[in-house]
Write a structure and sequence with these properties.
There is one protein chain. With about 270 residues, the protein is α/β, with parallel strands linked by helices. It has a single domain, classed as 3-Layer(aba) Sandwich (Rossmann fold), CATH 3.40.50.150. About 45% of the residues lie in helices and about 20% in strands. It has 9 helices and 7 strands; from the N terminus they run αααβαβαββαβαβααβ. Strands 3-2-1-4-5-7-6 form a 7-stranded mixed beta sheet, sandwiched between helices. α2 crosses α3.
Length: about 270
């Protein structure tokens, strides 16, 4: 299955009016359990810096929903939000200008080729590394781009069922992925030689979170991949399934998962 065609449909819809984009952000924050975890950990990291203004690099910002969240909730801060997709960056730039959000700038960048030096206090990379083949090169670039005592937050599928792969013979559920996911050990084996140390590692989408993802995200996306006519059916589908989905998401979010199909990893640069 490929996410990009569906994501492009949503991108075409939300670019028409700023209020649609804000509503879309709120839906993403509500429906995606990873957003619950990412926003929680970002708020915790912001407290590490006290009252000083921090510089943040949103590495692979996509719809820029996390850029929007950080610009609003991690103040005082300045953000540089980048992606390889020029059209998505252009639309994000127009939206932020329309909303008079002035602490964000945008760029079109390939993360394997960036050359920032000691520039950022925090790098945020959500659902990006699973798409990049040469991940070690990117980790080296991140380390160079961070200031001393800076943090790198990565959220990605894990090897424990991430991309809906549970066996070595199964194929990745998402066609755009370069790898199925990471484990804590995978991150440490690639980040520690670069110079990072582990600050925190959390597995997300455990037993209940995985079931919530299937019910709330995977099955609807599979329907939309078959035919866009299922956009009409989705409101009725969610009317029945949402209470169960949110309950399972809350259980996952409120407990400690020994393993899970997602991982939220935070590295520190001394």
């Amino acid at each position: 299955m490929h996410y990009d065609p569906i994501k492009n449909v949503f991108a075409a819809i939300i670019k028409r009016f700023p209020f649609l984009r804000i509503l879309f952000y709120k839906i993403l924050d509500l429906m995606f359990l990873r957003s619950w975890y990412v926003r929680r950990e970002l708020k915790k990291l912001r407290k590490k810096f006290g009252d000083k203004e921090i510089s943040i690099y949103d590495a692979g910002s996509g719809y820029a929903q996390y850029t929007y969240f950080m610009a609003k909730h991690l103040k005082p801060c300045s953000l540089y939000s980048v992606d390889v997709k020029e059209d998505w960056i252009d639309e994000s730039k127009k939206f932020f200008q329309a909303c008079n959000i002035n602490n964000v700038s945008f760029g079109i960048e390939d993360l394997t080729k960036i050359n920032h030096e000691n520039k950022f206090d925090l790098i945020v990379c959500v659902d990006v590394m699973e798409h990049i083949e040469d991940d070690v090169k990117v980790f080296q670039n991140y380390y160079r781009a961070l200031k001393r005592d800076g943090y790198l937050l990565i959220n990605t599928p894990s090897v424990f069922g991430g991309s809906d792969v549970h066996d070595k013979d199964e194929e990745c559920f998402i066609g755009e992925h370069a790898r199925d996911g990471y484990s804590k050990e995978d991150f440490e084996s690639k980040l520690h030689p670069v110079g990072f140390e582990t600050f925190q590692s959390i597995y997300t989408y455990g037993f209940w979170g995985d079931k919530a993802w299937r019910l709330g995200i995977k099955f609807p996306m599979m329907m939309l991949n078959i035919s866009k006519i299922f956009f009409i059916v989705l409101p009725f589908y969610y009317l029945v399934t949402l209470p169960f989905t949110f309950l399972m998401m809350y259980i996952d979010y409120s407990t400690t998962n020994k393993v899970g199909s997602g991982i939220n990893f935070i590295a520190h640069k001394n």
